């Protein structure tokens, strides 16, 4: 299922991308994280996409100002369903487990519903929690990320995964790099040289 | 070319890793990231991070150590195991550069962390300091508010002056006390406005000195004037105001209006002074009362002593009077029964006469002491020839020695050899009485030896008389009492020597009356010497002393008429008996008026006038008689035997005086003198 394949802005620079980009942001500064998040969501909403945010730190209050500066009223987009804000744990660890398939379905449904709603597309941004290593199914995080890349080929949803470098081990960071084709470096989206094609990654790691 | 085999993706990985390294939190995370990332470099099998650089072990398959440098020190190494050196070899230099960059990144990171820590510390310090400043500001604001409240509401005067003494602040209380409005005093010179003119300039100079660094008086009191000119006394507490550079910018003063307190203190001080003065007065009164008490106590003791002495004196007098009285009465009674026994009659008469004389002495002593005590004794100054006096005394005591049966004691009286010097001006009668007492005393207490008397002249123009005996002497502890009245009574309770005990007391009184003093030297068993002095006044005109000469006067006074004025019939009879053989024509008067009448109407040659008469006094009668017959000779005769009675009689117009009891020889001698 694909949209009209118009190029989109991710809100970081004037750079245009094909829909369905999968990006990671390795940050160690909350302002950097918050700035990227707001710009990303606002640019989506401005181009008619539905946007979803999974974060433990963001609230209506933290987002409203950024939205408002860009001519968007938080209440309005929330009420219209153009924007949803959820807690990361509630979305990713629903039922106390991390289930990649459920998450992939969620993304799929989100995209499908957005299209059904005649939105130009859909974008999600979520900050992964370090607790995932202790959550049942948490070890499948990289598998999930690789499969997201596969899913995006069919459902060109735009996805940004935020990882706090201060909370994840360096080895895990490098694994994260291997499953995201793009990454944000100093405010710019760049091709990730560590990226492995999902099929290769999944195969190498004996994933289904 | 080796470069041709390079995979750009690998180079990109190395660059990306360098970028991401900065985001990783710690070395553990960094090196786990690096070790995992470098495996993507072709030919590398494994990468390990060692904190210490390990020497290459040749036994191992291909492996390389890439030391990591932080500045000049080694931080550790990346130990790389190679699986395919040919594949790896093109990346060797890149890896070396990468490892070098890791060192730079770590150093930069450390520096950044240090900076961050420093920044955090600074920020923390800023926060803390900000909080402190905030608190200080709050405290300052609170302090200012309190100060402001205090200054506005406190009942103390508050004022701040600049360096010129101009008012830059004052509180409402100062305004209300001084009656000024704020506009009237702000910016005005404190000293000109509030201080009295006479001190303003002086205080201003002192203030300027303080502003220039002179010593400062922090607390003082002074006077200020209100707008109405009323004076207030204020107690000030002052402090100097400085700016941030410690430069003096003025003074701040807090003052208390102590006018009322000062007034109270002044009143209290006055009251205290009054009380102190009163206390002093009371103390003085107290002292006087104490002194009076002491004196009263002494007087009481003296009175008690005097009372005891007087009682003893009366007992002694009683004894002394009764003793001769006993003889007089007893022998008088015996006269009747022995009328025909002439020898006995003569003996009894002699005894009676002797005892009467003793009695007379006692009475004269009593009268003398009474006169001395009452100050009624007067002095009659006249020429006194000491040689004559001593001759009379010698004669007098020759008779006394016979009576006392002490003829064996030699009496020697010697005046000065120069007859001009031996005549002095004094009261001869009293001087004689002094000697009679002293010599009589000497005889009384001397059984063997001698008695000497005499005089000499000292350098102070005094005549020093003395009477020395070889008698029993006076103990030294008794010597101070011998001149006290009734002393003999006090000292000799056993009355061995008899006497009234008034003799020496009379002597002392007479000596002092003559302007002299008396003292003694004595030793027990060896005798006593009494000295007395009187001022020496030389006689300018030598006179002749009347000498009573015993002579035969029978019938010498024939054809002369004498008026005897005597109210006592016994005395009148006695006089008649004395004059019975003189051939005188005797007229009698019992009353004063009667005497005046007789003297005026009869040819009378001489009046023998008694002084104590039933109607008028003898002095009055003399005065009246003199009115009629101024030239009529009158001789006073009275029982008032004091020495000044003679003076009175002479002043009344009498030509002479004779005291009772009358001595026949004396009376006849006088009559002979004035009628022959």
Structure description:
- The complex is a heterodimer of chains A (208) and B (676).
- Chain A has helices at residues 30-46, 60-69, 74-80, 88-92, 100-116, 141-154, 170-178, 198-204, and strands at 8-9, 16-17, 22-27, 49-54, 83-86, 121-127, 158-164, 182-185, 188-191.
- Chain A has 208 residues and is an alpha/beta fold.
- Chain A has a single domain, classed as P-loop containing nucleotide triphosphate hydrolases (Rossmann fold, 3-Layer(aba) Sandwich).
- In chain A, α5 runs parallel beside α6 (141-154) and α6 (141-154) runs antiparallel to α8.
- The mean pLDDT of chain A is 92.
- Chain B has 5 domains: 2-121, 2-Layer Sandwich (Beta-Lactamase); 154-257, 2-Layer Sandwich (Beta-Lactamase); 263-350; 378-535, Histidine kinase-like ATPase, C-terminal domain (Heat Shock Protein 90, 2-Layer Sandwich), CATH 3.30.565.10; 561-675, Rossmann fold (3-Layer(aba) Sandwich), CATH 3.40.50.
- Helix content of chain B is 51%, strand content 20%.
- Chain B contains 20 helices and 20 strands.
- In chain B, the strands form 5 sheets. Chain B has a 5-stranded antiparallel beta sheet. A 5-stranded mixed beta sheet of chain B has the order 10-12-13-15-14.
- The A-B interface holds A 26-28, 165-171, 173-175, 177, 183, 185-186, 190-194 and B 9-10, 12-13, 15-16, 19-20, 22-25, 28-37, 40.
